[in-house]
Amino acid sequence: MYEVPAEFVQRISEAAFLVDDPKLQLNTLTSIPGIGPATATVVLAFHDPMNYAVGDRYMIAALFDDDRALRLSDYPQLLTELRKRNPGGLDLRTVEKAYYQQYRERHDIGRW
Question: Considering the entire predicted model, what is its pTM?
Fold first, then answer.
């Protein structure tokens, strides 16, 4: 099994955090082998939960009523939509978690 050197991952991640463009950040992070768009959003959300959120098929369904995987081009729109729906002062990660929970309840998804 191929192992990605830790220094490579660190440098790519640092490069992604230097820019303020979610689409470019996702493009940068997904250049790391094994990192897809949804996982890249997790990295951003845990790096800066005030300004980023996890983006995946559940958030696409919850916010845009579309049953499909997250595309790189979706993420800026997803963040904009979460900012619009933010009742004020909350970090985007918290807003995203609330919409995810609402999605789970609406679709009767239990705990894993």
Answer: 0.90
